[in-house]
Amino acid sequence: MENHGDHSHLQRQKKRRLVLFPLPLQGHINPMLQLASILYHKAGFSITIIHTNFNSPNSSNYPHFSFRSIPDGLSETEASTADIIALCILLNVKCVVPFQDCLAELLGGGDDDDDDDVACLITDAVWYFTRAVADTLKLPRIVLFPTCVSFFNPMIAVPLLYEKGCLPIQDFQLETPVPEIPPLRYKDLPMVETHDPENFIRFTKNVVKQTKASSGIIWNSFQELEELALTNLEQEFPIPNFPIGPFHKYFPASSSSLIAQDQTSISWLDKQPPKSVIYVSFGSLVGVNETEFQEIAWGLANSKLPFLWVVRPGLVCGAEWLESLPKNFMEMLDGRGHIVKWAPQQEVLAHSSVGAFWTHNGWNSTLESICEGVPMICQPGYGDQLVNARYVCDVWRFGLHLEKKVERGEIERAIRRVILEAEGQKMRERIMILKYKMDICLRKGVDGSSWVGKDEDVLSLANVHDNCEEVNEPQKIDGDTQLIKMVKALCVLSLGLQVYLKEVFLLDSVGYLSVNCLDLAWWTCPRRSSEVIVLSHPNKNFMENHGDHSHLQLPKKRRLVLFPLPLQGHINPMLQLASILYQKAGFSITIIHTNLNSPNSSNYPHFSFRSIPDGLSETEASTTDLIAFSMLLNVKCAVPFQDCLAELLGGGDVACLITDAVCYFTQAIADTLKLPRIVLLPTSVCFFNAMAAVPLLYEKGCLPMQDFQLETPVLEIPPLRYKDLPIIETHDPENSIRFTKYVVKQTKASSGIIWNSFQELEELALTNLKQEFPIPNFPFGPFHKYFPASSSSLIAQDQTSISWLDKQPPKSVIYVSFGSLAVVNETEFQEIAWGLANSKLPFLWVVRPGLVRGTEWLEPLPKNFLEMLDGRGHIVKWAPQQEVLAHSSVGAFWTHNGWNSTLESICEGVPMICQPWLGDQLVNARYVSDVWRFGLHLEKKVERGEIERAIRRVILEAEGQKMRERIMILKDKMDICLTTGGSSYQSLESLISYFMSF
Question: Looking at the predicted structure, is the pLDDT value of residue 639 above 70?
């Protein structure tokens, strides 16, 4: 609630009040009060809760809210009915007058506790009568749906299915799919039993109609869970949708429960083994008969696993509480079971001992289980529970549906399948991936168009005209983008503009718009078209000016100078990095490059390129001694590079130098010219940690390596063995140590390190690195995934690879490529050929010119080799690798494990056969095969039999399937890290902020 910059002419506006009206049922009160807490604590709105006398919330739990009670007019019989539809219809009739009177009084300033103006009404969707009241009082109404979006779409369809004659449901229809709303069957439709089925249709129509007429919908769900359902909904309901859940995760576990919670649940769980307990709770409304209750009891007992069972009073029809339990049931269990009347469910599900949740699949319970990564046994009762259970079990696939009669044997088997068997473990892996996505969606700054970046950021939404008031956005909005969009819409509504923001331009945490790099966003006021609303970021100058804003400054555009090492595996990531910094952050880019292996500037029309002589003779340029080559470049390029950089600095707009780590000579030049230097390491972090250890191992006398050491673990850098150390053969081994020392020393002296990797892949390695290298680290890879497949390849790519792959079966092809530097002898080449042929599987093989020592290309192939294969093999000189690995027919990648290749394989979920040759490849192969475990290391001599067996193990056998499952989990994590709010997204944002500080 601050004012940043010169806005002294602007007046402050009063704080705004929101009025919320929950439906008086447990599963509806909880999310409404959670939403109220979010809007109060995270966005600063004043809150008034209107509630019925029936099931009224405990106001003492919410001292900062004001509560207004209205009579509901229900008789004792009406309030205790089990007919939920009849109850809801009755409430919508009897609450009209008292609700309207109460709301009118609030609008008139009749609330003595606070004189804030009312900005908006938020009601449960079931309160359809409130639309007419809101319209009468000229107040915007936003609807809360405390269900999943996937439920609301079939709810919309139910009246239409009645009109088509498809409902009521007949027995023969139960398993029949509903074509209008896949993947549901007729038995999954959200029907609720009621005395008058026609009432249910009228009720549904009223809810749907008045929701569509509202100013927007708030969902206790999140985009990553229900992306398709939200897309479908927005086609039918062209009003703002705000999926800002899960609500309960915004705060530490708390409760608005109408039933007292038994805290002995937690102390009992503390004594149980991890992931061993089946937690059983069927919510606040579901009932069972005595026979079903006893079958549940025996099923739990017979599973031989510990259980925590919530038996609320009234769960068993006609019983008070536990009268229906088998005699001496609890004594027989000897402490293995614990029964309570109500449990603190969020705490229970978060407990390490809970292995599964047997649930009725109310949406609150389902969402709480997802949030803690607990797989489910699903036993839905009615309504949205039926839809939720279907999605949990058959779409998201982290639950088991108990669809048959409640029977002890079925129950026992289900519990053991989910807790003990491989099937349950797969469910747990799937739900943990979704839990991870949920964790990310709630992080501060999610979706780079978020209004809040750092804690101290405060953003103002202000009308810049002298005669208008400033409207300050509430301070420090912690939450996901959907929450922020919703808060923005509420603020606009509070201005009285009634604007629906179809396209929302929001600032990211460094003050630049993600869409066009402007630091200014505006909306024209529909009533006064000459006026605009400005969204600004503190302490940032505007990049552009709209209208008469002469008081705003324009900063100069910033330039970055990049210098790649002239080797294929180093040029690619440097040019990808340049593209990211240009297209995603708006920096100007200059590439300094050597004449040797110069990049194709025509592929990058927006960059400027400056060539410098490298001084290498033809012999020096063609050497296979990479250490000697790199050290020579570091000497011969120093003078021309310094001259070129000094000339560029004369332009006055260079912010920073980014060089390959191998170009260590550039640190001294950057220091001389007083320019920050950031290092790009186009390798894994794991490799660099090992590289940094090599000189120390020499000093300890552990190197050079002896044959007896090869399999010995290197204690300083687990899990590497001495044979995995990144040693590169060179004519002078001492040169290798000197070179490594130079690279490490000058990297440590730099202003920071950029990594083409991501946090989730190398978390431990990054943690270890920061202890030795206390400079900023920015892991925001994989670089190539920021854009559609493209290439900075120095070798022409053969596009026939893709047309050939199009003809192959899914996951059947072994793709073979050993990169741009590895070489083999003629014997090894022939063994590779026969190994591929003997596997009987299709293969795409990259044989670049020069791969086989002493030959041009395919001369050493066995005679008539390709003809013998009859189309099962395809050989090219170079392939569009990113496209190849993304192709559905590719089942494995036989690779040299260069980092670019390894990362590209991870990104497409393709398991690997590893054949490293030198340097970082050795480390990468060890991690792929023995740490991440989605690869097979070919460590023996290149021999056709070994090759054939390896290919078949990875493509055809169960071992390969497990590798595929592991790499797909990591692929999913990689996909998330690049989305707005993910780890790479945030790391890139941090780097951009860092550049702007220079």
Answer: yes
Which CATH number is 293's domain given?
A: 3.40.50.2000
Whether 255 maps to a domain, the answer reads no
Q: Does 198 lie in the same domain as 72? A: yes
CA dist., res. 878 & res. 71, Å (int): 77
Q: What is the pLDDT of residue 444?
A: 54
CB 587 within 8 A of CB 655: yes
Q: What is the CA radius of gyration of the chain?
A: 33
Residue 231 CB neighbours (<10 A):
10
**545, 644: one domain:** no
The 8-class DSSP code of residue 575 comes to: H
pLDDT higher than threshold 50 for residue 51: yes
Which pLDDT score, from 0 to 100, does residue 26 have? 80
pLDDT of residue 195: 85
- Tokens coding 633: 């470049």
Question: Are 426 and 476 contained in the same domain?
Answer: no
**Strands across the sheet containing 117-124:** 66-70, 46-52, 16-21, 117-124, 141-145, 217-219, 241-243
Handedness of CA 826, 827, 831, 832 (dihedral sign): negative
Q: Which tokens in the block code for residue 616?
A: 């290498």
Tell me which amino acid residue 152 is: F
Q: Which two tokens stand for residue 882?
A: 């990113």
Same domain, 228 and 340: no
Give, for 429, the enclosing helix (H) or strand (E). helix 422-441
Residue 253 in domain: no
Instruction: Check residue 61 and report its DSSP letter.
Output: G
523 three-class SS: strand
The first and second tokens of residue 605, run together, are: 């029309």
Residue 298 CB contacts under 8 Å (≥ 6 apart), including other chains: 326, 408, 411
- Whether residue 11 lies inside any domain: the answer is no
Cα–Cα distances in Å, from 941 out to 323, 712, 931? 73, 20, 23
Are 966 and 910 found together in one domain?
yes
Closest CA to 513 of 471, 451, 569, 591: 451
816, 843 in Cβ contact below 8 A?
yes
DSSP at 80: T
Which tokens in the block code for residue 165? 């004659």
- What six digits make up the tokens of 17? 């009040």
| Residue 593 in tokens | 């490059």
Q: What is the 3-state secondary structure (H, E, C) of 238-281?
A: CCCEEECCCHHHHCCCCCCCCCCCCCHHHHHHCCCCCCCEEEEE
Residue 501 has pLDDT above 70, yes or no: no
Say if residue 393 is in the same domain as residue 272: yes
Place of tokens 């705003």: 552
| CA–CA dist 483, 491 (Å, integer) | 12
pLDDT at residue 796 in the model: 81
Model-level pTM? 0.50
**Which residue type sits at 138?**
K
Query: Cis before residue 704, ω within 30 degrees of 0?
Result: yes
Tokens of 69: 């009670």
| Half-sphere exposure (Cβ direction) of 865: Cα atoms closer than 13 Å | 19
Instruction: Determine, yes or no, domain membership for 249.
Output: no
Q: Among residues 555, 585, 603, which one ends one of the domains? A: 555
Residues 642 and 669 in one domain: yes
Weakest-pLDDT range from 42-51, 65-74, 461-470, 809-818: 461-470
The total domain count for the chain is: 5
pLDDT reading at 725 higher than 90? yes
Amino acid at 585: A
- List strands edge to edge, sheet with 521-524: 470-472, 460-463, 532-536, 521-524
* pLDDT of 115: 56
Residue 109 or 844, more confident? 844
Domain end point (choices 522, 555, 588): 555
- What's the confidence (pLDDT) of residue 937? 96
Q: Same structural domain for residues 757 and 726?
A: yes
Host domain of residue 836: 800-978
Distance CA 100, CA 119 (A): 16
| Token pair recorded at residue 388 | 């939720």
